[in-house]
Specification:
It holds the Pfam family ApbE. This protein is of the alpha+beta class. Helices cover 32% and strands 26% of the residues.
Length: 292
């Protein structure tokens, strides 16, 4: 997942935190495209890899997300994120010719419960759902221990097993807060997708790649989703909506029934009609300024 993970719990459940981190570490060892011992790293390198329970489930979910988003969630964008932009490694700016020639096709991936195969020139990147997946597995563990006052946060993917207060970072200035709210239900997922610190040289070269155009998206700078559905689902759907055409993105989010708050690249803030079902005391900060 290559991100900061925090787990907070009340004093009664504090002794479970280490086990929660251990679960997330196991998932990282399975899904990482950076760790040479991880199944997904081996799949990208060798075109074939054995799968464990975590990697098989993640690929199965990714196949469902691909269908549910009309192909806007596609883990085979790894040929762009890993090979061309090389996010998280020796980053560079990809040329238009390189992007046009990149092989992005979910059909390049075949897998079953035991193993996966990948066509030449294709690469898998689970960054669009892996953090949410890890949060879900940790949350399952805490639920099994009847631990309720727990918050699991993997960068923009958060699970609050009880009521909590959330602040969303401004996409325009790292130290500013875009908005804040309090949740009104137990066991809610909150996911924010955007170009936060994940770009090369400028936000025009961000990590949110439209798999159809093979280019970084530019319509949205921040999408926050709130719902009871799994954090993996929220992670994937926020990623997909971030690269959809604007009209399609809003139709997609409305059909999901999730609460959403979207900051467009033109500075307009759009709040979905369902947000009041999950939140209260929503505060939009007046420090919001569009990036010059």
């Amino acid at each position: 997942m290559s991100t900061l993970v925090t787990i907070t719990a009340d004093e009664r459940d504090a002794d479970l935190i280490t086990e929660g981190f251990d679960i997330i570490k196991e998932i990282e060892k399975s899904l990482s495209s950076y760790d040479p011992d991880a199944n997904i790293y081996r799949l990208n390198k060798n075109r074939h890899a054995e799968l464990d329970t975590f990697s098989y489930e993640a690929l199965l979910l990714s196949k469902r997300y691909y269908a549910a988003t009309d192909g806007y969630f596609d883990i085979t964008i790894g040929s762009i994120t890993k090979d061309l932009y090389r996010f998280g490694e020796d980053e560079r700016v990809a040329s238009l010719a390189e992007l046009a020639g990149a092989y992005v096709s979910f059909g390049a991936l075949r897998f079953n419960e035991k193993e996966a195969f990948l066509e030449e020139s294709a690469k898998v990147d689970l960054g669009g759902m892996g953090k949410g997946f890890g949060v879900d597995k940790a949350a399952e563990f805490f639920r099994s221990k009847d631990a309720k006052s727990v918050v699991i946060a993997a960068s923009g993917d958060i699970r609050c097993l009880s009521l909590c207060r959330i602040e969303v970072q401004s996409p325009f200035k790292e130290d500013d807060v875009l908005l804040s709210f309090e949740t009104t239900k137990d066991d809610l997922g909150i996911t924010t997708s955007g170009n936060y610190n994940r770009y090369v040289t400028s936000t025009k070269n961000n990590h949110l790649i439209d798999p159809k155009t093979k280019k970084p998206q530019s319509l949205f700078v921040s999408i926050t989703l709130v719902s009871e559905i799994s954090s993996s689902d929220l992670d994937a759907y926020a990623t997909a909506a971030s690269v959809m055409p604007m009209k399609k993105a809003y139709e997609f989010l409305d059909a999901l029934g999730v609460g959403y708050i979207v900051m467009q690249s033109d500075g307009e803030l759009v709040i979905g009609k369902n947000i009041s079902e999950y939140t209260k005391n929503l505060l939009i900060r007046d420090t919001l300024k569009k990036q010059p």
